[in-house]
Amino acid sequence: MKKLVGFVGWRGMVGSVLLNRLRKNNDFKNFNSVFLTTSQLNFNSPDIKNCISNNLKDAYNIKYLMSLDIIVSCQGQEYTKKVYTKLKNMHWKGYWIDASSFLRMKEDAIIVLDPINYNAIKLGINKGIKTFVGGNCTVSLMLLALGGLFTNNLIEWISVATYQSISGSGSKSMLELLNQIGYVYKNISSYLSTSTSSILKIEKKITFLLNSKNCPKNFMKVPLLGNVFPWIDSLMENGQTKEEWKGFVETNKILNYKYNIPIDGICVRVPTLRCHSQVFTIKLKKDISIKEIKYLLSSHNSWVKIIKNNIDHTISKLNPLQVTNTLNIPIGRIKKLNFGKKYLSAFSVGDQLLWGAAEPLRRILNILISQ
C-alpha cells in the first residue's frame, strides 16, 4: 500500500518550489497525497497525481493528521510548535519533515542533506528517528560546495562571509525591494532620458529618495536597494547573529564528527532576488595543491562546478543570475592566500530555494517513501 503524505505550507516560496520539484521528477506517482491548509478549508486541492481529496483538509485537525504516514511542513515554525508536539504527545508513528528551524537542534531530529550525511540518515531511520529537518540555507550550500574537503577531513577552520538574497527574508521583503526599485525609477526616469544629466546628480537624487520617508520600507527598517545589511536574524549572547551561530552548530551536527570544526563569519543581506553567495577563508590541515583541491571538490558530487580563476569565467558563471533555478553550485576564485600554504579562499553561489531549502526535503521524502 502506498504511503499517505500530507503537505502543509505548499503555497509559500519553499513549498511551491518543492511541489515543482516533485512534479518535475514525477515523484507523486510513488505515494498518495493530501493537501492541508491553515486558512482555506475546503478550497480545491492542486491537480496532483494520486491526490486523495479534491478539497483542502484542515491542517489543525489532529485526528486527521494522526492518519497520515508522513507530514511535510513548509508552514513555518509557529505551526510546527503548535502541531508537532501534540502529535508526539499522542504517540503518532508517522514521519515529520520540516523546512523551519524549530526542530533542527533537537536530539531526536536529523538535519537532512543526503549527499553529505546519507549514512547518518539511514542509521537514524533504522534506529526509529521520525523527525527530519531541512538545514539552514547557507549551511547546506557550503557543505555541498566544500563537500570534498569536509569528507576528506581536510578543514581545520573556516571563516565565512555570506551575501544572502532578499528572498531568504520572505516574499513580503522581496516584494518590498521590487517596490523600492519601482519607486526610485518613477522619480528618476526623466533624468535617464537625456545624456546631459550628471551621473552625480542622479546618484544624489537616488540617495535622497531612498532616505526619504516615502520610500517603501514596511518590512525592512531601511531600504535594501543600493544597500547591504550586515545583520541577519537575532542577536546571540556572544555577539553573533543567530544566522552566524547556525553556521557552526548546524554544520557540525550534520557532519557528526567526534570534534567540532570552528566556523564563524558575518552574514550579509544584499539586494539580489534569489541565490546566496559565500566567501570562504579556510585553514587546511595540510598543504595540498590547488589541482588536488579542485579534484576533491568536483568529484564529491555532480552539482559542484569548478569555475576557472579568470575574469571572463568568474563574471559570466559565478553569479546569482546564472545559478537561479538550477541545482548547480559553482565555486571559483580558488587560490592560496598569502597567510601560508595551508590557507585557501573560494567563492561559491547556490540557489537557496533549491539546495538551500526544497531539494533536501524532496530527497528525504523519497528516502522515507522507499522504506
From TrEMBL:
The keyword Amino-acid biosynthesis applies. One of its GO terms (molecular function) is NAD binding. It holds the Pfam family Semialdhyde_dh. The gene is asd. Residues 4-124 form the Semialdehyde dehydrogenase NAD-binding domain. Pathway: Amino-acid biosynthesis; L-methionine biosynthesis via de novo pathway; L-homoserine from L-aspartate: step 2/3; Amino-acid biosynthesis; L-threonine biosynthesis; L-threonine from L-aspartate: step 2/5; Amino-acid biosynthesis; L-lysine biosynthesis via DAP pathway; (S)-tetrahydrodipicolinate from L-aspartate: step 2/4. Its EC number is 1.2.1.11. Keywords: Amino-acid biosynthesis, Diaminopimelate biosynthesis, Lysine biosynthesis, Methionine biosynthesis, NADP, Oxidoreductase, Threonine biosynthesis. It catalyses: L-aspartate 4-semialdehyde + phosphate + NADP(+) = 4-phospho-L-aspartate + NADPH + H(+). Coiled coil: none annotated. It is an enzyme of class 1 (oxidoreductase). It comes from Buchnera aphidicola subsp. Cinara cedri (strain Cc). This is Aspartate-semialdehyde dehydrogenase. Signal peptide: none annotated.
